[in-house]
């Protein structure tokens, strides 16, 4: 009987050498005449331990990591196929504190199953949500999602149920489901990990959304920089269609839903829902004026649900376990869980899924282990390149949309980028302005011109040219961007700029 060995195929793990490790394990097993079943799973999200190899034993899965190809022979010598002792032995995977102390709902299968095996997916509670949805009327499906308290995980945090209900009640012969998989924020990778590690959960979520609002076609708008996700999504779509979970007669219900993946072309602004629709229609990615809302007049002028990957991937468990089950996690108006991504100067980078309410300090130290350099953490940027910089005095803030908004910060997509006390916050603020200037679609003047002027003003401040006057000008310019930009790209650029200016005035030349 062969032993099952798991080596991640996640692109984060691949960048750390997982492919070479998998190849070395296969060669070593063949050399020793040992039968193994090598499964390429998704990453568990413990990136400081990647490549992390897991072995299925009678006691459960035993983890070893981080493994290099040169250590593979030693693992075999230590009888790692039976959980043998070795310096890299991490014990039972599920008992690793970083993993054990999470609440993994959306990512429940990531790292456990073969991502493109439909059989694996179904064996681990897959498609139970869809089967329940097929027994319900569309309005009842929408009610379950509404009752769960699920809000958009892409950053806007708009209640998903309200959006779905709008599309449901907008009469039209054609409606669409669009997944925004253009994950372009720095320090974010939860969408990628779902699409690479459990693509079926996204497919199931989109199918349920189609049933809920009366849409028979869906599109996944995927950033071109995700080739592994593109491959896995297409493989999973083909498998689902062949098994009757997609197509013109879903599970014999007579209801139809077709799904395809479309690649973006690298524009950050296409993460904004209306620019995404323009791109999906084959046009240049420019932001649309609203109203009309996409829920009423979206893709090709038809009612359209646009949700982020994590939003849609959270739907299957809601339809499986019920809206109340999901709502029991979290705090305040922030219900359920959030995949939190830790990046930057952090000792233990990776992905954790926690119920809303965990504090920033707990995430940074209990999970992240502090800075990688060992120096004090001075600031973190939460919510992508346009998120506010938060100082140490705000680290006890719970991860909650309203708690962050009260501090003039954003939780966004859940990405956290960490900086130690060697960071120059004036240069970080300048980068935000430069990013906006580079990525602006150019449709509105405040974003197009304001960001360019902002870079010039920042350079003058950094070079101590009429610093006081230019800081005043920077604040005025930020006010214009905040209140007059057409979309969040220009409207949010002041968040990192003003937060850096307010919390770290010394970096801008003020008296410390």
Describe what this molecule looks like in 3D:
- There is one protein chain.
- The protein is α/β, with parallel strands linked by helices and 512 residues long.
- The protein has four domains: 3-100, Glutaredoxin, CATH 3.40.30; 118-327, 3-Layer(aba) Sandwich (Rossmann fold), CATH 3.40.50; 330-420, Ubiquitin-like (UB roll) (Roll); 425-508, de novo design (two linked rop proteins) (Up-down Bundle), CATH 1.20.1440.230.
- The protein has 22 helices and 16 strands.
- It has helices at residues 11-15, 18-32, 72-77, 97-100, 118-123, 128-133, 138-148, 160-168, 190-197, 199-213, 227-242, 273-280, 309-313, 315-321, 323-327, 360-367, 401-406, 425-439, 445-462, 467-484, 488-492, 494-503; strands at residues 3-6, 36-39, 53-57, 60-64, 89-92, 176-181, 217-222, 258-263, 304-308, 330-331, 334-335, 337-344, 350-355, 377-382, 389-391, 415-420.
- The strands form four sheets. It has a five-stranded mixed sheet, with helices on one face.
- A hairpin with a 6-residue loop joins strand 14 and strand 15 (389-391).
- 54% of the residues are buried.
- The model has no long low-confidence stretch (mean pLDDT 95).
């Amino acid at each position: 009987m062969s032993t099952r060995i798991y080596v991640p195929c996640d692109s984060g793990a691949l960048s750390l050498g997982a492919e070479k490790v998998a190849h070395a394990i296969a060669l070593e097993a063949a050399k020793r005449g040992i039968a193994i079943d090598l499964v390429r799973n998704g990453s568990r999200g413990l990136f400081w331990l990647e490549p992390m190899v897991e072995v299925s034993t009678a006691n459960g899965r035993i983890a070893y990591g981080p493994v290099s190809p040169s250590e593979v022979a030693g693992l075999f010598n230590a009888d790692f196929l039976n959980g043998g002792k070795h310096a890299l032995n991490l014990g039972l995977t599920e008992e690793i504190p970083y993993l054990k102390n999470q609440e993994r709902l959306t990512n429940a299968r990531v790292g456990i199953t073969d991502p493109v095996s439909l059989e694996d997916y179904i064996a681990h509670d897959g498609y139970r949500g869809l089967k329940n949805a097929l027994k319900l009327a569309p309005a009842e499906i929408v009610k379950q999602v509404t009752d769960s308290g699920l809000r958009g995980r892409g950053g806007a945090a708009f209640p998903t149920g309200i959006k779905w209900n709008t599309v449901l009640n907008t009469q039209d012969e054609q409606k669409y489901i669009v997944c925004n998989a253009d994950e372009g924020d720095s320090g974010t990778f939860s969408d990628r990990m779902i699409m690479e590690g459990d693509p079926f959960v996204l497919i199931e979520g989109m199918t349920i959304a189609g049933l809920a609002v009366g849409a028979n076609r869906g599109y996944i708008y995927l950033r071109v920089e995700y080739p592994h996700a593109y491959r896995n999504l297409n493989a999973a779509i083909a498998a689902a269609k062949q098994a009757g979970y997609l197509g013109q007669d879903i599970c014999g219900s007579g209801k139809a839903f077709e799904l395809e993946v479309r690649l973006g072309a690298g524009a950050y602004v296409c993460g904004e829902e209306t620019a995404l629709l323009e791109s999906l229609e084959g046009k240049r990615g420019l932001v649309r004026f609203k109203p009309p809302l996409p829920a009423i007049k979206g893709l090709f002028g038809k009612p359209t649900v646009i949700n982020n990957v994590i939003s849609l991937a959270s739907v299957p468990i809601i339809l499986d376990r019920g809206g109340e089950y999901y709502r029991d996690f979290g705090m305040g108006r922030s219900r359920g869980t959030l995949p939190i991504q830790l990046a930057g100067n952090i000792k233990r980078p990776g992905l954790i899924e926690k119920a809303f309410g965990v504090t920033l300090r707990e995430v940074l130290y209990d999970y992240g282990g502090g800075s990688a350099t060992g120096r004090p953490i001075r600031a973190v940027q939460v919510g992508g390149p346009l998120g506010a910089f938060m100082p140490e005095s705000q680290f006890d803030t719970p991860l909650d949309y309203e708690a962050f908004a009260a501090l003039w910060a954003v939780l966004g997509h859940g990405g956290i980028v960490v900086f130690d006390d060697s960071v120059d916050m004036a240069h970080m603020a300048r980068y935000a302005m430069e990013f906006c200037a580079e990525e602006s679609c150019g449709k509105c003047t405040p974003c197009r011109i304001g960001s360019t002027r902002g870079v010039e003003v920042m350079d003058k401040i950094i070079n101590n040219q009429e610093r006081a006057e230019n800081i005043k000008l920077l604040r005025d310019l930020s006010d214009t961007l905040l209140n007059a930009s057409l979309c969040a790209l220009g409207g949010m650029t002041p968040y990192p700029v003003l937060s850096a200016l307010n919390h770290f005035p010394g970096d801008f030349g003020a008296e410390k």
